[in-house]
Design a protein that fits this description.
Elements lengths: L1 H13 L1 H38 L5 E5 L4 H8 L4 E14 L5 E7 L8 E5 L9 E5 H6 L7 E6 L2 E12 L20 E6 L1 H4 L10 E6 L7 H8 L3 E6 L4 H41 L2 H9 L4 H29 L1 H9 L14 H25 L4 H6 L7 H4 L4 H4 L3 H12 L1 H39 L4 E5 L12 E12 L6 E8 L7 E2 L5 E2 L6 E4 H7 L6 E6 L6 E9 L7 E4 H5 L9 E4 L4 H4 L5 E6 H44 L1 H9 L4 H38 L12 H23 L7 H5 L4
Parallel strand pairs: 3-8, 5-7, 13-19, 16-18
Antiparallel strand pairs: 1-9, 1-10, 2-3, 2-6, 2-9, 4-7, 5-8, 6-7, 11-20, 11-21, 12-13, 12-17, 12-20, 14-15, 16-19, 17-18
Helix pairs in contact: 1-2, 2-7, 2-9, 2-10, 2-11, 2-20, 7-11, 7-16, 7-20, 9-10, 9-11, 10-20, 15-22, 16-20, 16-22, 16-23, 20-23, 22-23
Length: 760
């Protein structure tokens, strides 16, 4: 009915602060979630489209010396539609600028490179090279430029015929131990079969890419039978690291959004629910009057349902729009530094619209439920049943403990007892603000603390040197330690086979190991250590036995896990040289950890493939940290804003409910400062309890949050500096006190006669 619509508009105008707070809470809640959701939804969509457009392989099989006969046998495997061979060489630029993985294929129908600039890839080209677009961009290379590579049979110069992207290298790190892509150092490229012969004496096909019509990911044994001892491994899209990382990143974003948003939404819903109930309860006289005038109960319920429907939906839709241009843009910018696609799109998630509907439904339920309670009885009874519970504060009987209190504290505790929900909601508001602030500010502490642990305690080297050929060591005058870093398949009890890394260490102290109490431990002589995060992921504990197999080997090795190590990077199985050789394995060094800080001197040796300094590694991790913090800063700002809105909303509702109390006290001769003191006492108590509970909950939430945002190859550990706790405390306590001071100052403006007119 038209007059009810007019009444709703008038109520919104007269109670605009309360309605506006509900509007803001809905906006902030949807803003955070929808912003993140639009990134992961867009990422999943574009990755899928990229894979489809390039006809990306479903299965990758690695083996040694793949022949035509092998291809024929693979094509005969049930479910295989098409197969194509390829070969890769990891080569250095002649000028030392970087390392490029050069690929050639004997067919272009599977995993076709996407051309960013230049001409289409030609597998028969004799001179041209198609270079990774991001590597080209980083090194200021373009179509028509020349690039020289140090091949196995000498240096060869190529003309850049095009720049490309491929979903197979969507997250290319260049090295098994690297955490994030680094296109200053690593890239990839494609050349024709003839051009590849300028780099190597012969083409030895080492990988088969398969298109399948059905799931054959469990048919590894068939490929083993085909290749025998030449078989290395088989991977599907879920395990092919360079592609699977995109889905891992998407999953990580979903967990981040769900976890952080859950706190936002829970706090907002509790506050919005309370707000709608109180707003309706204050209109009992209006409800009674409407019923006396003949308005049906269903019309009244519908009227108040509109209160809870319109405001949250409008706020949620605004959050949807703002989230796309704030949180989504910031997060997409972060992900563009690690995941490389020809095109990025932001797509609104269905979950965001469901969230808006859920918030609106909760508010509608609160409004209708409160209205239904008010509709019980005859109109005259409804109009007389105005809530006078606050008056009971002045009439309540004293118990023994209260009798010994001062009047101010008696008034405070009696008010709390008569308004338990209000008191609890105040505590929840402060507590929630503390949780969000500690989690937001603590991420920086966690990242910095983890980096300090890795690069100051765990790693003692200054330069990491990668060998061109495994086992081809060289003499060095500097203190150092040789490592073998090899890809392996790891199988634990009741777990799927996982592809990871084994790190075999020769004598030295360039890499140290610690237990969970930060006590230094040594590598066992007859077993292995396992990094903590990898152990947790695979549900492995000390004393368990696992099976490992090096890529290219047919033999599974049984290894006993002696201890879990607090090794944040790399996530690996660690063995001493002696323990490794006791398994009848040959120690074949791939890496040198050197105390020398002159990284350039190592590049003079033809046995060195690449070099990275500790400073470069620190810079890479800081880049990741900075990108993560750009999103976290938005979450912090949203946390502060939400805390202000929640606390102000609760405060204004409390003030409205107690106007008659304050007016009565003014009539009785209480000074303004005395009334203000009473209000502040309750605020102090509420804030103190919320703060005390919020501190440990905030640290627990941070621990969970940091665990979620850790990478597969790098674990971040939760740590909170005293300064972070101090800042979070000052912000939340300060907001709470300032809000209550502002509201208590309104007591001066109370017109006593007007306030007391409502007394029945």
């Amino acid at each position: 009915m038209e007059f009810l619509f007019k009444k709703m508009l008038r109520d919104i105008r007269s109670n605009w602060t309360q309605f506006f707070s509900v509007f803001l809470m809905a906006t902030i809640s949807v803003l955070i979630f929808s912003g993140m959701a639009s990134v992961w939804t867009g990422l999943n969509s574009q990755v899928s489209a990229f894979a489809d457009d390039s006809n990306m392989a479903d299965i990758w099989v690695k083996a040694v010396g793949i022949t035509d006969d092998d291809i024929n046998k693979i094509n005969a495997v049930n479910g295989v539609d098409e197969a194509v061979r390829c070969m890769s060489l990891s080569l250095s630029e002649s000028n030392g600028n970087g390392e490029i993985q050069v690929n050639t294929v004997d067919g272009t129908d599977i995993s076709k490179p996407c051309i960013i600039s230049g001409i289409e890839y030609d597998k028969d080209s004799a001179e041209g090279i198609w270079l990774d677009a991001e590597y080209a961009k980083e090194h200021d290379l373009k179509v028509g430029d020349k690039i020289s590579l140090d091949g196995l049979i000498g240096t060869c110069e190529f003309e850049i015929m095009g720049t490309v992207m491929t979903p197979e290298y969507i997250y290319y790190t260049g090295n098994i131990t690297e955490t994030v892509p680094n296109y200053k150092k690593y890239g990839y490229a494609f050349v024709g079969n003839t051009a590849m012969l300028n780099l190597t004496p012969q083409i030895v096909w080492s990988q088969v890419k398969l298109i399948t019509s059905e799931d054959i990911s469990d048919s590894e044994s068939e490929f083993e039978n085909i290749f025998g001892e030449r078989f290395i491994c088989a991977q599907d899209r879920d395990t092919y690291t360079q592609f699977a990382r995109s889905s891992q990143e998407s999953s990580q974003m979903q967990k981040m959004a769900t976890l952080f948003s859950a706190v936002f939404i829970l706090l907002s819903l509790m506050t919005m629910y309370t707000s709608m109930v109180r707003l309706v309860n204050r209109q009992k006289t209006h409800i009674g009057t409407l019923k006396a005038l003949g308005v049906s109960s269903s019309s009244i319920r519908l009227h108040y349902a509109c209160y809870g429907l319109v405001i949250p939906i409008v706020g949620g839709l605004l959050g949807l729009v703002i989230g796309r241009f704030t949180v989504a843009k910031a997060l997409m910018k972060v992900k563009q530094t690690t995941i490389y696609l020809p095109e990025w799109k932001l797509i609104h998630s269905k979950a965001s619209f469901l969230l808006i509907g859920f918030i609106a439904l909760c508010c509608v339920f609160a409004s209708v439920w409160a209205a239904q309670r008010c509709l019980k009885g005859m109109p005259v009874e409804i109009m007389r049943s105005t809530d006078n519970s606050n008056e009971k504060n002045l009439k309540a009987s004293e118990n023994d403990s209260e009798s010994r209190m001062s009047y101010e504290w008696k008034w405070t505790f009696r008010n709390i007892k008569q308004n338990k929900i209000r008191f609890i909601m105040g505590i929840v508001g402060v507590m929630g603000g503390m949780v969000l602030m500690i989690a937001g500010l603590g991420v920086k502490d966690a990242i910095n603390g983890s980096n300090d642990f890795v690069f100051e305690k765990q790693f003692k080297y200054n330069t990491k040197v990668l060998l061109s050929t495994a086992g081809e060591v060289f003499d060095t005058d500097d203190a150092g330690q040789w490592l073998q870093e090899s890809n392996i398949e790891l199988k634990a009890d009741n777990q799927e086979t996982k592809q990871t890394v084994i790190t075999v260490c020769d004598d030295g102290e360039m890499m140290l190991f610690y237990d969970d109490d930060d006590n230094e431990i040594s590598l066992p002589q007859d077993g292995a250590l396992i990094s903590r995060k990898l152990a947790d992921d695979l549900e492995i504990k000390s004393g368990d036995t696992v099976n490992i197999r090096l890529f290219g080997s047919q033999d599974w090795l049984s290894v006993t896990i002696k201890e879990t190590s607090k090794t944040l990077s790399p996530q690996s199985i660690f063995m001493s040289k002696e323990a490794y050789e006791s398994l009848n394995m040959t120690f074949t060094p791939t890496t040198l950890l050197s105390a020398s800080d002159n990284s350039e001197s190592f590049l003079e040796s033809d046995k060195v493939k690449s070099v990275i300094s500790k400073e470069q590694q620190i810079e890479n991790t800081e880049t990741v940290a900075d990108s993560v913090m750009s999103v976290v800063k938005l979450l912090i700002m949203a946390s502060v804003l939400l805390s202000v809105v929640i606390l102000y909303n609760l405060g204004i509702l409390n003030y409205v409910e107690r106007i008659r109390d304050y007016a009565t006290m003014k009539v009785l001769g209480f000074y303004h400062k005395e009334i203000r003191s009473l209000a502040i006492r309750e605020c102090i108590l509420t804030t103190a309890i919320g703060w005390i509970i919020g501190l440990p909950l905030g640290m627990l939430f941070l621990k969970l949050y940091v665990k979620i945002i850790s990478f597969d190859t790098f674990e971040w550990i939760a740590s909170v500096n005293a300064s972070t706790l101090a800042i979070a405390s000052v912000v939340i306590i300060g907001v709470s006190i300032v809000v209550n001071l502002i509201l208590s100052s309104k007591v001066r403006k109370i017109v006593m006669v007007e306030a007391l007119k409502s007394v029945e």
